[in-house]
UniProtKB/TrEMBL annotation:
Protein name (record): Pilus assembly protein TadB
Keywords per UniProt: Cell membrane, Membrane, Transmembrane, Transmembrane helix
Gene Ontology CC terms: plasma membrane
InterPro entries reported for this sequence: T2SS_GspF_dom (IPR018076)
UniProt topology in membrane: Multi-pass membrane protein
Lineage: Bacteria, Bacillati, Bacillota, Bacilli, Bacillales
One Pfam family, short name: T2SSF
Domain Type II secretion system protein GspF: 167-292
Length: 313
């Protein structure tokens, strides 16, 4: 029976890993198909996805409007979430749900209140350890928006880092073919989805509205903290002042960023080796030793050549 349980657990996790892998393959193939359709039909393949995002943002806006009632209280109780920090987080996360600083601060207090009433409900019903929930659930509600927004910032900047070299190669090729920078940006961003698309779409909109190009570049710097992206924008600013050809700037930056990506991968691989060794040393090896020792002990007690048989018990 024990062997059957272990076998079922192994099969379960194998199927979970296989399912995640197939889901990842599906998402990649879907993305490639959208890009291909956009290229062939000259239609924005990500337009439908963008509409879904806007609909989701509208739903979130309706739900979070109740946080406005707690905005003043949230701005006074601003532990680990000063207004300047919140404003910076919202900028660098893309602010997909169009939250204001006041509404974000109100969301903390709204979730804190929800956590408190949920803890009181569990406490009245007599759930185990519910007395600890009177403290933990309100704290979890308070810190939940802070943790989520920080994770969004990290995820967004990482997405920019991954898409940037391909984006630069495509822009560089377009510029070398004689296309202007603005026209190249408008055409190329149709084939990208995510932060790169959002940032340069907003950049083009600012240019169309008459914002000076240098100011638009600096707005890009303010909204993003990714080192590679900031290096690109600073190079464009310098090239704008010195008159360096834009195509050369994009080409050089693409090569440099691919080298930086390779170095980053090597660095992560070097950091992974000690972690794997630690897991093997402190988890895998002791478990294997305990399993072997346990089997030996059971064999000594219940096996054919057990101690009891040798002593004729």
């Amino acid at each position: 029976m024990d062997a059957l349980i272990i076998f079922c657990v192994i099969v379960f996790w194998f199927l979970v890993v296989l399912g995640l892998r197939n889901w990842s393959v599906y998402l990649n193939e879907k993305r490639e198909l959208l890009v291909h359709v956009s290229d062939v039909t000259l239609v924005d393949g990500f337009e439908k996805k963008e509409k879904k995002r806007k609909q989701r943002a509208g739903f979130i806006d309706k739900v979070t409007k109740y946080a406005d009632e707690f905005a003043d209280l949230g701005q006074r109780i601003n532990f680990f979430s000063e207004n300047l920090d919140v404003e910076n987080w919202l900028k660098k996360s893309g602010n997909r749900y169009e939250l204001s600083v006041a509404r974000f601060q109100g969301m903390k207090m709204l979730f804190l209140t929800i956590g408190f009433f949920a803890a009181m409900f569990f406490f009245i019903l007599g759930f185990p350890f519910s007395q600890f929930g009177l403290i933990l659930l309100p704290l979890a509600g308070y810190f939940l928006p802070i943790i989520v927004i920080k994770q969004q910032v990290k995820k967004r900047q990482e997405a920019i880092r991954l898409d940037l070299p391909d984006f630069l190669d495509t822009i560089s090729t377009s510029l070398q073919a004689g296309v202007s920078l603005d026209q190249a940006l408008r055409e190329v961003i149709r084939f990208f989805d995510g932060p790169i698309r959002e940032e340069f779409t907003r950049f083009n909109q600012e240019i169309d509205l008459g914002v000076h190009r240098e100011r638009a570049y600096r707005n890009l710097l303010d909204r993003n903290s990714n080192e590679e992206f900031q290096q690109l924008i600073k190079s464009l600013l310098q090239g704008l002042k010195l008159g360096v050809p834009v195509a050369t700037t994009f080409n050089v930056q693409a090569v440099d960023m691919r080298q930086l990506r390779q170095e980053k991968v090597k660095e992560l691989a070097a950091k992974a080796s000690p972690k794997v060794t630690m897991v093997t040393t402190f988890i895998v090896a002791p478990v294997c030793i305990l399993m072997i020792a346990g089997l030996m002990l059971l064999n000594m007690i219940y096996g054919e050549n057990s101690i009891f048989n040798l002593l004729n018990f």
